[in-house]
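One thing: mind reviewing this one?
=====
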Amino acid sequence: MAAGDPVYFHPIRNWSSPWLDRLGVRWVLAAPGEEPPETGWRLAYAGSDARVYERPSAMPLARLIGSGRVGVERRTPGAWTIDWQTPRQGRLVIAEAWDRGWHASLDGRPAPIKAVGGILMGVRVGPGSGRLELRYHPDGFIPGMVLSALGLAAIAAGLIRRRVRIPPD
């Protein structure tokens, strides 16, 4: 419902795609006076600046495949904290793009993350209850930090040497 940008944004063309539900897309922003592209969406806001529609079919951002309860305690860029409870083993699916930089811990112990549907994150849990913590550190983050620090140290050393001006022998 917006203009495309070749780098940052590709407009959605198939508004009935099940991926919108799987990704938990609950709210859609539209131009003022624009009708929803799908029937059944609820108008949540209508103003002179925009319209906002709610998609009732959107799945929760974190959900259990199987039975159980899931509660997202915290969600910030690069970090999730999710409490879960299930009577049997299941897969906790998180509507976040899977990448090798994601690391999971179940009750403080490392846990493997698998790609679900080729894009979302999934972690095996249960039976019982616990806390899942997810953290994101992109590949190359630590080496990049080290190289940046070395570069800044070299610049600082050059500036100090220039100020001190060691006289030649």
In short: The helical segments are 18-22, 141-164. The radius of gyration is 24 Å. The chain has a mean pLDDT of 89.
